[in-house]
Design brief:
The structure holds two protein chains of two kinds. Chain A has nine helices and no strands. Chain A is mainly alpha-helical. Chain A folds into two domains: 39 residues; 217 residues, MetI-like fold (Orthogonal Bundle). In chain A, helix 2 packs across helix 9, helix 5 runs antiparallel to helix 7 and helix 8 runs antiparallel to helix 9. Chain B folds into two domains: 33 residues; 222 residues, MetI-like fold (Orthogonal Bundle). In chain B, 80% of the residues lie in helices and 0% in strands. The longest helix of chain B is centred in the last third of the chain and has 38 residues. Classes of the chains: A mainly alpha, B mainly alpha.
Chain lengths: 262, 261
């Protein structure tokens, strides 16, 4: 049998011990020279570089400016994915013919990693803002579509039958029956999309971009500035986490408002 | 039921035929889409013939593909062999969970792709850097799902095994592992997908051979036909390895009625 839950104190102590050994091992590896500090700077070096980058520019901009330019592309890409994926998913859930037409195409494209769209994205939309947006779109689109589709497809049949019996036209059926019923599933999909979109953005910026955190990291890699690379990783992690927390809050708020959870 | 299936297949088939027809019409017949933007079917075919015959970006398609598959399988295997036991251990022992979880929570938000520059700094453009980033990306889903698998085991099963005095290693081998196997395989599917995405990205950033490298060269040469060849290859390889994993899963879970459908 799994051991019984630990008390709060023990959990905290063990957690702190875990963090301390992680930081300790890291400091030891770089401080003792086992791994050259050039390739593995210590935690303090990375932290001080992070603070330094907040105000002084690297690769053309400060860290916050790089983040802002990344985030702009990211927001466009994810919003575009939601704006196309969610309605298309709902329509597919309602019109069987559309479902049968789109599903084979979708299944065929599903196995192509979003990042493999990079060459065409660069060719079609350039490496400025259009190309990266397309790659973020490629990463964020599938969960939007799939979850809206599942949400609409698995609506309680009685609700649809009742609405149909009352002579509801398709447009109202989709907006007033399927959409509200599918909202929890859609939101869950958006959260997955947001994560995958952020991941695709990082990939896109590593390969094609002239600004953004990913670009900053590639530049730093080129000039062997490991602390800057690691500061970039931390910045990406923090923003990704903030996005997830915000969406979780939004999801909770929506659930409470709809009375799904008290 | 058969009627529904055949209707689906019919419409699906017609869609595919329609798309191929549209491809011909847009590129070859009307030239609405120029070959600088998207290759015509003939150009795609020529690119495919070129890479299979003379080769492109240093070798033939088969050897690029072989190299990529090899790296994915190696990174994936290392991730599974380290991630699943760690997840099982964390699920089994709450002290281990309490010890590792905070570190995990700190590292997890960093997307696997963000490790690529660091991996290149550490290990260069060769295979080792790619295996490292694939390991990073495939490790997390393996751990999480193995962990969840153990935590979701029905208590009575564990209590019964314990009451019968099952020794520790038999407990792991004959109770915990089989009971969490369905969940572990869910993790493996996610891990495999992540492995492909990461490998393609890593090869696009810097490589000397592999499918991502073909894409990279084709992009630099502005060679749409070859770009399409590369993308189709990525899709086919991803599909084939997923199919293979599904086979293994069906065999491993043959005893599990719930997994059969």
């Amino acid at each position: 049998m799994t051991s019984p839950p630990l008390g709060f104190r023990e959990t905290m102590l063990l957690g702190l011990a875990g963090l301390a050994s992680f930081i300790g091992l890291w400091s030891f590896l770089s401080g003792s020279g086992i791994v050259p500090a050039q390739f593995l700077p210590g935690p303090l070096d990375v932290a001080s570089r992070f603070v330094h980058l907040l105000t002084s520019p690297f690769a053309g901009a400060t860290l916050p400016a790089h983040l802002a330019s990344s985030f702009q592309r990211y927001a466009y890409g994810v919003l575009l994915a939601a704006a196309i994926g969610v309605p298309l998913g709902l329509l597919m859930g309602f019109f069987r013919l559309l479902d049968d037409i789109v599903t084979p195409i979708f299944d065929g494209l599903r196995f192509i990693a979003p990042i493999a769209w990079v060459p065409f994205a660069a060719l079609w939309f350039g490496t400025g803002i259009g190309g990266p947006i397309m790659i973020i779109f490629a990463g964020a689109f599938p969960p939007c579509l799939i979850n809206a589709y599942r949400g609409a497809r698995f609506v309680e049949p009685r609700l649809i039958e009742a609405a149909r019996m009352l002579g509801t036209p398709p447009s109202r059926m989709i907006l007033e029956v399927l959409l509200p019923a599918a909202v929890p599933s859609i939101i869950a999909g958006l959260r997955v999309s947001a994560g995958l979109g952020w991941q695709s953005l990082v990939g896109a910026e590593l390969i094609v971009a002239a600004a953004g955190v990913g670009f900053m990291m590639v530049q730093a890699q080129g000039s062997v500035q490991t602390p800057t690379v690691m500061a970039g990783m931390i910045a990406i992690g923090i923003v990704g986490m903030l996005i997830d927390i915000l969406l979780r809050q939004g999801e909770g708020w929506l659930r409470r408002r709809r009375g799904l959870e008290s | 039921m058969a009627l529904v299936a055949s209707r689906k297949t019919l419409i699906g088939g017609m869609t595919v035929i329609g798309l191929v027809g549209l491809w011909f019409v847009l590129t070859t017949f009307t030239g609405l889409v120029t070959s600088a933007r998207f290759p015509s079917p003939a150009e795609f075919w020529l690119s495919l013939k070129q890479i299979n015959g003379r080769g492109y970006a240093g070798s033939t398609l088969a050897s690029h593909a072989f190299h990529s598959v090899k790296l994915v399988l190696m990174g994936f295997t290392v991730a599974v062999l380290t991630g699943v036991p760690l997840g099982l251990w964390m699920g089994w022992n709450r002290r281990v969970e309490a010890f590792i979880n905070p570190v995990f929570l700190i590292i997890r938000p960093i997307p696997p792709l963000a490790w690529i520059p660091l991996a290149i700094l550490w290990l260069g453009l060769g295979d080792a850097a790619k295996i490292l980033v694939i390991w990073f990306s495939a490790f997390v889903p393996s751990v999480i799902n193995a962990f969840t698998g153990v935590r979701n085991i029905d208590k009575p099963i564990l209590e019964a095994a314990r009451m019968l005095g099952t020794p520790r290693w038999r407990m792991v081998r004959e109770v915990i592992l089989p009971a969490s196997l369905p969940m572990i395989f869910t993790g493996l599917r996610l891990s495999l997908q992540a492995s492909w995405t990461t490998l393609v990205a890593a090869e696009l950033v810097g490589a000397l051979v592999g499918v991502g490298f073909v894409l990279n060269m084709a992009q630099q040469d502005i060679y749409p036909g070859m770009i399409l060849v590369g993308m189709v290859t990525v899709g086919v390889l991803g599909w084939a390895t997923t199919l293979l994993l599904a086979r293994v899963e069906r065999r491993a879970l043959a005893w599990n009625v719930a997994a059969r459908d």
